[in-house]
Every structure is written in structure tokens, then in C-alpha cells.
Specification:
The complex is a heterodimer. By secondary structure, chain A is an alpha/beta fold. Helix content of chain A is about 55%, strand content about 15%. Chain B has twelve helices and eight strands. The longest helix of chain B has about 30 residues. The chains are: A alpha/beta, B alpha/beta. At the A-B interface, helix 6, helix 9, helix 10, helix 11 and helix 13 of A face helix 4, helix 5, helix 9, helix 10 and helix 11 of B.
Chain lengths: ~350, ~325
């Protein structure tokens, strides 16, 4: 078993991260497939709303709950597509003290916008779903495909961001009885509130107040949960896999991403370089003048080799940056990967 | 189409596309191309660290203040760039509305997070409101907006329309209406989509194009297809036959390498050609095909190459047919 292979046999959580458009979804599915082939119960969580993953797994559509993908392997492969709003609703239902409280929150306009508008919510819900799946004990390994973020910190900071939002001091002050709150929040804060009403409209302030009222008493549950999610990500059984395509611009983004992860004390457990041009060896051609058609063939071969060398130089630097993490390489196929067979071929290449 | 005509069709060009398609390189190339017609260009970057300064040979990151990327010279306009983030735009908006004293605190206390969650789209509207103000003030002959990655770009461009229908009145609604007016007037603003000749990027470009026209009411310019492989020439015959006909001694390894490279190139080219055909079939917009610059990073030399390629693709465009007003 290759060093990369031990990730799918030994770890219980694999988080695939990297910038958008590098094939993270395909790589995540490949890792889960490899785990199923190794006899484990694997589940892949995708955040990509495109139908590609469903297509490549040969299933009609993906739900917010795991669906088993049928196939000829000793283990089991499940897949689900993250529904950010649905996952958030589940959390609210879990932590509400009464069904009425949950209902009040779910109906609030500000809450309804929360999933789509607060940056980091999607990232947090992906981590939340991951926690839920791991916690259920149904799977040996859960592989999660993360939203395409420019900033790695969005992924790691998301739980904290949400709890900070829910604990907003200013709005919490509004929950106190009116007269007291005015004194408590002070002159400057009153000015702020007047500002909000003036610029954004009074109903916005009202929505916000009723949202925080409805949330009363639930922050503790959210905070505890966010802490548990953070611990799960820091656990040695969790592997972060940095995914990049071989395009030089993607590699420089991945390098930036790796640096941000390192600042946060996260070491990538592996680097996967996707869509690598084949290198076509180093054989030598005949010397001297060549007929035109042979010269065209030689030119083409030379061009292809230059492309491959340039790519290799670009990702060698990144490999050094994340050393000693092993590198997985996926070649650029001359066709697109979007069916189960192609995914199996990808897995063969990656875990060879 | 005449290059000058292309560069003066709209005052603001929004460059949008999926992550990794080379949106920033194209933004730099359009800026360079327009500057060579003597026009002054302002690039507005929205997300941090795009590398646009590197495309002009500078190393600093952009901030709220303008940076000159290229000086004016004979027959060449200036290229300047700045970054506008939602927080910057909000602080400026509040200051403009006489709230200078509290603006910083609104941002730092997290109130802005609450408000922008309560009003989705407010951040986008404020940023585009700032772009509108720059356009009105005629700060440059051409303003190029390096839009966020599509998905986000769709939200970015449709937020204003959403806010107009949701808000009852007040300064924000006015701001949103101004933005809608800008986006829906093709003499003021157009959107250029950037894509790659590959399956997913092409699908996404087609989908975004329809969504943007329907929901944001924007006029789309030609679609820029980046990293197009030039057609392979002289690769019709299998390597073994060519080598045999040449009567030269070539190692079997090398013949195999020549053949593998030949087949790979032909297959990849057939695949990209099929994607360009699909784009043409499913999206009735003209294309600007730009070759791959084949370099590890985009610097001034690559920007020049891309600008020249783009200019020749523009020259090949059919002149725009005037639609008679009914």
C-alpha cells in the first residue's frame, strides 16, 4: 500500500481542500471509492451542487442523507450532497428547547438569509455534516469536499465566526427590557442603532431583534458543538489533503493555501496534483535535417515535454513546501472524468 | 470589429468566470489592449490577492488607494488599479451619508455582519454602487471589474435587482436602483465571461450566461475562451509510417514517444474543439479564442502576448448589428 493509500485505510476523516476548479470533487470521490475498495464503509460529502458527482457515481441524484452507491467492491460507498440550509435547520431543531422556539427561528427572515449570506456558513455546515456523520458511527471513513474558498481560514474559522455572530453583544443588549437596555448599551450604541434604522430601514432592526430573541438560550449548544467540530478537525485521525491542478496559476494558489494552513498549525497529510500532462519519456530523435512531417512530430513531442517539465517544476516547489506529505498524481486524461469507470481508473492511478 | 469600437462600446466591462480560468490574466490583457488604443483604464479588483499587479510587473498587493500599473506614453493610456471591498464601500457610503463618526465602529462591532445577513446583497450593491460612482465621475475611459468567481458573480450582479424589489424605499433602494440602471444599460456596462475549452467550464459559462441575462438584465459581450490549443499541423500520419518513409534510424522508444505525443495532442485537440462547438451551439454569443501563453506565471511579457492575441480575435469579430428601436 502506498503512503497515500494509508490515508484511506487508516484515517477516519479526510478533508479535501484547495481552490475552485481543481477537481476537488472528483478527488474526494476517488478517495472514498479507494476506501470502499479497501473494504471500508466510506461516505463522501460533496458541496458541489453540479450534478457531476451524482453522474460520475452513477446515481440519479444526491440527497442531504447518505445514499449507497452500488458497485463491485468489498466495502461500501455512500455519497451525499450538502444542503446548507437543511443542515442548519437540523441544528436549530436539535438545540431548540421547544418546537415553538425552533419554528420561530426557522420562520425568521434574518435566519432564512443566514445560510446564504453570512460568509463561512457553507463551510461551517460542511464541517457540521462531517461531525454528524462521524458521530453516527456508521462509517469507517468520511471524505469531505470543501467549498471553493480563496481563503483557507474561512474553512477553519467558520465555527467561530458563526458563534461570534450569534453572540453579537449589541443585539444581545436589545433583548434586555427596553429602558434598561438603552442605559446599558450607552449613547454610542444608540447612535449605531439609529444609523442602522436610518440606512437599512427599521424593519431590518426588528427582524434582527426577533431573531436574537428567538435564539435566546441556544448559543450555548451551538458553542459547544462548534468546539467539538474544532476538536474533531484537530484530531490526528483527521487528514487534510491539499488538492491542486497542475496549471501553474492553480499551484501558486495552492501554495498560498498551504501557507495559510501552516499558520494555523494544520499540516497537509498529502498533496494531490490533478491533471498532470504526460511526460513522454526522454528518448532522443535523429539528428540533422528532417522531412517536414517528421519535424512536425518532433516539434509536437518537444512541446509536450516542455509543458510537462514546466508543470513538474511548478509542483516540485509546492511538494517541498508541504514535505514530508506524500504526493498523489492524477494524469490529464484525453477525455473528461464523469462516469464510474473513469473514477475507478482515476483511483487506480492515484493509489498505484 | 474595429478595436477602438470594441473598447468604447461600454464604459464598464465586468470580467467574470469560474475560478482558475484565467480571469485575472484576461482582465490584465483587456486593460493592456485598451491602453494601446490610447485609452486610460482603471481596474477594480474585488477579492484579495488576484495577481493583477504582477501581470504589469509590480509586486505590491492592491489596496483601497489607486496604484499606477502602467504610465501614459505616446499612443498608450495609463492603467491604474485599486481594490474595493464591501467593508471599504460601506464605510465610504456611511461617511457620504454623514455618519463618519460611527462608520468604523459599525464594521468592527460585527453589526455589519448582522445587517448584511438581514439584507443579503447589501455588500454587492455597495461595491457596485461605488463602481457606478467611479463611472459617473469618469475616472477613466474604461473601467474593468475583475468579478468574483461565477456562482458568486451571479449573486454579485443580481443582488441589486433583488434589493430593489425587496426594499420599500430609502437611500439603499435608490443606490440599488442606480446599480440596476448601470447594469442594464449596454452603453454603460457589459459582462465578458471567461472560460476554458473544457467540459465543466463550458457548461458553467453557458449556464451563467443565461442566468445573468435573465436575472441581472446585463448585456453580455463576447465569451473569451482562454488557453485554446492551436490546431495541430502535420500530425495526420502515424509516427511509425513517417519514420519508415524518412528512411532514418530511430529507436523504437522514440517512435513510441512520438506516437503517444501525437495521439495525445490529437485527442486533446478534438476534445477542446468539441467543447468550443458546444459553446457555439448552446450559447449564441461571439467568441474570442485566446491561446495558452504556456508560462508559469503571468508577467508583462505574457500580458502583452495575451493582449495581442485578444486584439487580433477582436479584429476578426463581425461588426455589431444595430438593432432598430421599435
Amino acid at each position: 500500500m502506498s503512503e497515500l493509500g494509508t490515508l484511506v485505510t487508516d484515517r477516519s476523516i479526510v478533508v479535501c481542500c484547495g481552490s475552485g476548479g481543481v477537481g476537488k470533487t472528483t478527488v474526494s470521490a476517488t478517495f472514498a471509492l479507494a476506501a470502499a475498495r479497501a473494504g471500508r464503509r466510506a461516505c463522501v460529502v460533496t458541496v458541489d451542487p453540479a450534478r457531476r458527482l451524482a453522474d460520475s457515481l452513477g446515481v440519479q441524484s444526491l440527497l442531504n442523507t447518505p445514499t449507497e452507491v452500488a458497485g463491485d467492491w468489498p466495502g461500501h460507498l455512500f455519497a451525499l450532497m450538502l444542503d446548507t440550509k437543511g443542515t442548519f435547520d437540523e441544528l436549530v431543531n436539535r438545540y431548540a428547547r421547544t418546537p415553538e422556539q425552533a419554528e420561530g427561528i426557522l420562520a425568521n427572515r434574518l435566519y432564512q438569509n443566514l445560510a446564504g449570506a453570512l460568509s463561512g456558513t457553507q463551510e461551517y455546515m460542511a464541517m457540521e455534516k462531517l461531525y454528524e456523520l462521524v458521530d453516527s458511527g456508521q462509517f469507517d471513513v468520511v471524505v469531505v469536499d470543501t467549498p471553493p474558498t480563496r481563503n483557507a481560514l474561512d474553512l477553519l474559522d467558520a465555527p467561530r465566526r458563526l458563534t461570534r455572530f450569534l453572540e453579537n453583544r449589541l443585539f444581545r443588549a436589545l433583548l434586555l427590557p427596553t429602558r434598561m437596555s438603552l442605559r446599558a448599551v450607552g449613547v454610542a450604541t444608540q447612535a449605531l442603532l439609529r444609523t442602522i434604522s436610518k440606512v437599512a430601514g427599521a424593519e431590518i432592526v426588528q427582524d434582527a431583534v426577533s431573531f436574537f430573541q428567538a435564539f435566546e438560550g441556544m448559543e450555548e449548544g451551538f458553542r459547544t458543538r462548534a468546539g467539538a467540530v474544532r476538536e474533531m478537525l484537530a484530531d490526528p485521525a483527521t487528514a487534510f489533503v491539499l488538492v491542486t491542478s497542475a496549471r501553474p496559476d492553480a499551484i501558486s494558489e495552492a501554495s498560498f493555501f498551504a501557507e495559510k494552513l501552516r499558520e494555523r498549525g494544520v499540516t497537509p497529510a498529502a498533496l494531490v496534483v490533478n491533471r498532470i500532462h504526460p511526460s513522454f519519456g526522454d528518448s532522443r530523435g535523429p539528428e540533422g535535417p528532417l522531412p517536414a512531417d517528421l519535424a512536425a512530430l518532433e516539434d509536437n513531442l518537444a512541446t509536450m515535454r516542455v509543458v510537462a517539465q514546466r508543470e513538474e517544476r511548478a509542483y516540485a516547489g509546492l511538494a517541498q513546501q508541504v514535505a514530508p506529505a506524500p504526493i498523489g498524481r492524477i494524469p490529464l486524461f484525453s477525455h473528461d472524468v464523469h462516469e464510474l469507470h473513469a473514477l475507478q481508473v482515476t483511483a487506480d492511478q492515484l493509489f498505484a | 470589429m474595429d478595436l477602438g469600437t470594441f473598447c468604447s462600446q461600454s464604459h464598464v466591462l465586468v470580467v467574470a468566470g469560474k475560478g482558475g480560468v484565467g480571469k485575472t490574466a484576461m482582465t490584465a490583457a483587456i486593460a493592456r489592449m485598451a491602453s494601446l488604443t490610447g485609452r486610460s483604464v482603471l481596474i477594480v479588483e474585488l477579492e484579495g490577492k488576484s495577481g493583477i499587479t504582477g501581470a504589469f510587473g509590480l509586486s505590491e498587493d492592491l489596496g483601497y488607494d489607486e496604484v499606477e500599473l502602467q504610465e501614459a506614453a505616446a499612443g498608450q493610456g495609463t492603467v491604474r488599479a485599486r481594490r474595493i471591498t464591501p467593508d471599504d464601500a460601506l464605510v465610504e457610503y456611511l461617511e457620504d451619508h454623514g455618519l463618519k463618526r460611527v462608520s468604523k465602529r459599525l464594521v468592527s462591532s460585527g453589526v455589519v455582519d448582522v445587517v448584511s445577513t438581514a439584507i443579503p446583497g447589501i455588500r454587492d450593491v455597495l461595491v457596485l454602487g461605488k463602481v457606478k460612482q467611479l463611472e459617473r465621475d469618469r475616472v477613466a475611459d474604461l473601467i474593468l471589474v475583475d468579478a468574483p468567481a461565477t456562482g458568486h458573480a451571479i449573486t454579485f450582479l443580481t443582488s441589486a435587482a433583488g434589493l430593489v424589489s425587496a426594499a420599500r424605499g430609502g437611500p439603499l433602494r435608490t443606490q440599488a436602483q442606480d446599480v440596476v440602471d448601470l447594469l442594464s444599460d449596454s452603453s454603460r456596462c457589459r459582462v465578458l465571461l471567461v472560460t476554458l475549452p473544457e467540459d465543466m467550464p463550458v457548461s458553467e459559462a453557458i449556464e451563467s450566461a443565461y442566468t445573468l441575462e435573465d436575472k441581472a438584465g446585463v448585456q453580455l459581450g463576447p465569451v473569451i475562451v482562454n488557453a485554446c490549443d492551436p490546431p495541430p499541423v502535420g500530425l495526420e500520419t502515424p509516427a511509425a509510417e513517417v519514420v519508415a518513409a524518412a528512411g532514418l534510424v530511430v529507436s523504437p522508444d522514440h517512435v513510441a514517444a512520438l506516437e503517444a505525443a501525437r495521439q495525445f495532442r490529437l485527442e486533446r485537440h478534438a476534445m477542446t474543439a468539441a467543447q468550443i462547438d458546444r459553446l457555439a451551439r448552446d450559447l449564441p454569443l461571439p467568441h474570442l479564442l485566446v491561446p495558452s501563453v504556456g508560462s508559469a506565471s503571468i508577467g508583462p511579457a505574457e500580458t502583452n502576448l495575451l493582449a495581442a492575441a485578444l486584439a487580433s480575435a477582436v479584429a476578426d469579430l463581425a461588426p455589431e448589428v444595430e438593432v432598430p428601436v421599435q
